[in-house]
């Protein structure tokens, strides 16, 4: 899991910085203030969870088990669904895409829950 989650963390961190710069420089005159804020929310959550994935990758070297793996995969899914739907919503002006965004939020919550349960089960 170390390599896999580190690669995802690096990819999402890299693309998060790029998308943030794209929004700040390339979209600020093309999107409404509301849509720009929505796009930036996607970037914000992507970056936070890229860092969370980095932490999960490091933890996977010390803790094994399904909860750590589930946490990482739920963070990956959350970024793709939550942030991805916000990017598509703003770039295509298709508000119905906002209906799937909460699914990504549930993935984030599930990832944090799995991480918390893994910590709870520690005996040290």
UniProtKB/TrEMBL annotation:
Organism superkingdom: Bacteria
UniProt key word rRNA-binding: no
rRNA-binding found in the keyword field: no
Pfam families assigned: DUF423
Membrane-topology annotation of the record: Multi-pass membrane protein
Primary localization: membrane
Segments passing through the bilayer: 47-65, 72-90, 96-120
GO annotation, cellular component aspect: plasma membrane
Entry keyword set: Membrane, Transmembrane, Transmembrane helix
Subcellular location: Membrane
Family according to the record: Belongs to the UPF0382 family.
Protein name: Conserved hypothetical membrane protein
The organism of origin for this protein: Pseudomonas knackmussii (strain DSM 6978 / CCUG 54928 / LMG 23759 / B13)
